[in-house]
Amino acid sequence: MKVVIIGSGKVAVFFAKKLSSGGAEVVQVFGRRLEAITGLAASVNAGPINNFDQLDKTADLYLIAVSDDAIAEVASQMPPVNGIVVHTSGAKPLSILNGKFEHSGVIYPLQSINKYTTDQVEVPVLLESNLEEDKTLLSETAQLISPQFQFLNSTERLKLHVSAVVVNNFTNYLYSLTHQFCEEQGVDFKLLMPIIAETGNRLYHFSPEILQTGPAIRKDVGTINQHLSILSSSEELSRVYRLLTDEIIKSSVFSS
Ligand SMILES: NC(=O)c1ccc[n+]([C@@H]2O[C@H](COP(=O)([O-])OP(=O)(O)OC[C@H]3O[C@@H](n4cnc5c(N)ncnc54)[C@H](OP(=O)(O)O)[C@@H]3O)[C@@H](O)[C@H]2O)c1
After folding, report:
1. Exposure class string for 153-180: b at 16+ Cβ within 10 A, else e
2. Which of 139, 155, 200, 232 lies at a C-alpha separation of 20 to 30 Å from 39?
3. Cα separation, 58 vs 31, whole angstroms
4. Mean pLDDT for each 10-residue chunk of the chain (256 residues)?
5. How far apart, in whole angstroms, are the C-alpha atoms of residue 18 and residue 187?
6. CATH classification of 2-152, choosing from 3.40.50.720, 3.30.750.24, 3.40.120.10, 3.30.565.10?
7. Mutate to test the pocket of ligand 1, among 30, 66, 157, 167 (most ligand atoms within 8 A of CB)
8. How far apart, in Å, are the Cα atoms of 49 and each of 8, 29, 62, 63?
């Protein structure tokens, strides 16, 4: 399978390395800034290009891994190709590529991908294609990334994407605020690792609605006030603590 990677960011690097080590031939890496793509292109023995006039038209797959807001613009700059053109966004619909290419699709890795993403990480891959006949190639590509893949439509993918933002990005924001608080207060954030890991692991076996603990669900007002008092030096964390405590107390999700 011949692949062209378009983009040089976190997901472009992830796909270039995974596909290349899985046996695909990454023939070119496209980026608007040559200096941003030469290292990546060299690492997978691909040609670096910064002009679509140089695009290899014989590839089987063109993987657009650029910022969500740039996908349509980049696609509009591409010449017509016979291979399948896909984007990697959870939020953008397949239709963003419609009309421009005969064969189009989506390969969305449902994982937080950055330079710390290891080969061992589990990555459900969500696929979509505009033609039934393209499903085989998309499935073969997904299998180079992960044994876990399935076809979903754009609306289903968007629902999972917003869910991923809440469970991953929002919790990481809470970890960051807490990390700063611990550093400022001279206590070891790493002591929280077992409780973080246990909460995640329990979700493999139980629904989160039956797992809630803590002062808010118990309506332990005295403890909540103690917490707000010690958080008084951390305005942002204090605000978030109040908001989430109020929401948990009012919430109907724990009532059954
Ligand atoms: N990171 C994740 O966890 C993750 C997971 C699943 C899916 N995705 C999706 O993967 C895609 C890429 O995300 P990412 O995390 O890899 O982003 P990123 O690391 O921020 O990289 C963005 C890339 O887009 C390029 N770009 C931005 N605007 C452009 C334009 N107008 N023309 C040409 N290239 C442009 C950037 O090029 P320059 O270097 O020249 O700015 C860079 O190569 C997005 O659709 C995202 O939703 C991300």
Report:
1. ebeebbeebeebeeeeeeeeeeeebbee
2. 139
3. 19
4. 97 96 97 94 97 97 98 96 98 93 97 90 96 97 97 98 98 98 98 97 96 96 98 97 97 85
5. 39
6. 3.40.50.720
7. 66
8. 11, 6, 13, 14
Tokens representing residue 103 in the block:
């064969």
| Nearest Cα residue to 249 out of 218, 209, 210 | 218
* CA 82 / ligand 1 centre spacing (Å): 24
- 83 CB within 6 A, ligand 1: no
> Which pLDDT score, from 0 to 100, does residue 256 have?
59
Q: Where is 199: in which H helix or E strand?
A: helix 193-202
Pick the CATH number of 158-250 from 3.40.50.620, 1.10.1040.20, 3.30.300.130, 3.40.1390.20: 1.10.1040.20
* Helix, strand, or coil (residue 105): strand
